[in-house]
Amino acid sequence: MPAMDENAEQQHPTTTVSTDYAHRQLARAFTTALSHPDPATRSRADAKAGRWREVLAGIAGGTLRIGSRTPVAGLPAWVTPEVVRGGFATGRACAEGPLEPYEREACRAAGVPEGRAELFAHALTEAGLAGLWALLDSGRYRVTVPEEAALLTVAWLVRAGEQSAALELVAELAPFAGRLRFTPPPGGGPAARPDAVHRRTVGDVVATLATRGPNLAVETQREALTVWLPYSDELLAHWLETADGGRALAVDPGPDWHRRGAALLLRYRTLAAAHRLCGKHRKPGENLGILRAALEATVAGEPLDPKLRGLLVASVDAMVRRRGLPGSARHSALRAGQAAQAALPSHHALAQVLLGRLATLGQEDGLADPDAVLAPVSAAEAAESGIPAGSAVPAALHRPVLAATSAPVETLIGRGLVPSAEVLAELAPQLAAAAEAAAHPDPALRGLVAAGHRAFAARRSLLLLDYAHQVRAEELPWVRAVRPHRSGDPAARRTGLAALRRLGELTLGTFPGTVPPNPLVSELAGLARRAGEPLPFTEELAADIFMGGFTPKFPAAARIAAGLLEGTVYERYYGIDYAEVRALAERAGSDREKSVVAREFSTLCRQRAGTPGTSRSVAANGTVIEQAQILTTHNLAVLAGPVGVVPAGGWEAAALGAYGTVRRLVALAERQPWPLATVKNAAFAWRQLVFHLSLCSPREREAVLAVIVGEHPARLTPAVEGLRLAAAGHRFDPDGTGARRFLGWTVGSHWLLGR
């Protein structure tokens, strides 16, 4: 859930959260748990309903304060709360619950009673510290929630001679020693190369492949090819022995024919009992059913009635005409091809081979060499599985394996494994973790910091009110304790800035026209902060909980935009007076002045949105938020200005890419019954187009405008006319020129959709 900024005035919560949303989620989960046909889905829904009941019970009982940074009574802000959809805390911490198996094993190995308090106390003994040091140096652990890094940090501090810091950290952790996990689970191996990232782990691939059972349709076809077609050929050949001039039973078959016919019927019953996937052979109107029914009557000594005799003759004729006589060249070639198809190993069988290969790898890691996992079946594997050696892994099994590829993020993007900005946001914590770790000279501490950063990035955001901000990694006691041990070497700072620039280039250049997701913005802000360059990166705010104003970093970001865009197409198109904006932002000196400037900036946004007062309308809130995004450029100016980011293909390519996104979304909106969300995204893409266009050279700008003016959708004509006027150096009145500013949020109908 998007939240407000850190520079807000600290206020006591004055706004309450309605429980309507929580009640709706509970009802939805309860309905699914009752009615869904899939048992696993029902089970998950039942668990989800239980969590929502905990939310509502906590709110009613006063043990939960939704909207606060410390929503769970008795737990400090640094404890990771369990959070459900919408940012609601359930009342539990992610690091609590029954002892994990690795904790029980650690208690047994230490000879202490099973309990977290006992394990915590043992970790502070000489033997316990020695075990933690060995774990630190091996790197064979994984931090799944941030708290699991706490005691490893204590051990590192003790070894570094920082007893005072270690004791302070222990004192802060001790009140929760019996409740929370402060030691990490074991890992399969040391960390991967620092510049490598991965979307999925080997364990994720194993879980996906393990659910891949035999395909019923494929196995049914395999049964038809290997069982029933050969049997029908035998039955046809048997009847052809009686044919004379193409008419079945034209000659006396003799006793041996009857004996062999009885054997064929017995074998049919055996096959039908053993092979139940195919049902076609049971249908009396099918060729096989007719041949079998006629044989049963003949073997039983019953005369064939004229109808059955006619069907028998027609079936025999049709089968020979379609495929040729059994044993003929045409028939043999057909059956050979079908047998080869049936002999192909199933996806299920090949998935078992892949599972065997993956079982020997670290389950928490990515795949540095996915091609080795996807190699053809070896001779040894063939001997064990019965699958022919050299069998290729089908394309359908490539996708889950390739999703775990561990490589530089640019490599993953080039291979199509990062399809959206949201996926890039998932990978950003790994990039940031590597940069943060590089700032620590000690190898053991580097590994611990990187693991802790990745775990913290997975912490779900809380629903926050009254301009509160999400907990930052620096607020965690164990992170704060090792903060003084960051390197002061300029090279470490350069590494952080390089990581910031690299992620910024990916943000601008890879997915043009896409709003950076909040998790990605958070990582950009964290990288800047830790590199000693705190910059006003701004998150996308939620219109449904918008407090009506903005925090001081918004006018600070607008000041950067003013310095970059004053006098440009962007300023003219959106009707901005950036000189006024810059003058406003420059008055923010002291904290008190920052708050005053933030309130004046909020007023400016409301005036630009045409809603000078506050409103409970989500759409009205959205129009105000959009004006703040326009004035600040929603992080584009911060990236292009202070960070110095230039898209890999240049601003012209970025502008054309953003325009391509606009065209795609406008076309999509025309086909949707509820298109407003798509129109909003198209307007955000258009804003990026105008920004990129403003940074193009005059020649590049003319080239981009020629494309837009020459081939734009008719619905976009007012926006294109406004852009053309702004590019020509004119400001325009949207009410009097036929030109429009393309905005996403609107109260009422949107002009792009017509009537």
Please tell me about this protein's structure.
It contains 33 helices and 2 strands. The chain is mostly helical and 755 residues long. Helices cover 57% and strands 1% of the residues. The two termini are 33 Å apart.
Concise account of the structure shown:
This protein has helices spanning 20-35, 39-61, 101-110, 116-123, 126-138, 150-159, 163-173, 202-210, 216-240, 255-274, 287-299, 306-323, 329-343, 347-358, 370-373, 379-385, 398-402, 409-414, 421-438, 443-457, 477-482, 490-510, 518-530, 553-565, 569-573, 578-585, 591-609, 618-632, 636-640, 650-671, 676-694, 698-710, 717-727; strands at 81-84, 88-93. It is mainly alpha-helical and 755 residues long. A two-stranded antiparallel ribbon has the order 1-2.
How many distinct beta strands? 2
**Which runs of at least 5 residues are low in confidence (pLDDT < 50)?**
1-14
Helix content: 55-70%
Biggest sheet strand order reads 1-2
- Structure class: mainly alpha
Write down the Rg: 35 Å
Instruction: Tell me the distance between the termini.
Output: 33 Å
Number of contiguous helices: 33
Largest sheet: 2 strands, antiparallel
Overall, the morphology is: globular
Overall mean pLDDT score? 86
What proportion of the residues form beta strands (DSSP E)? under 5%
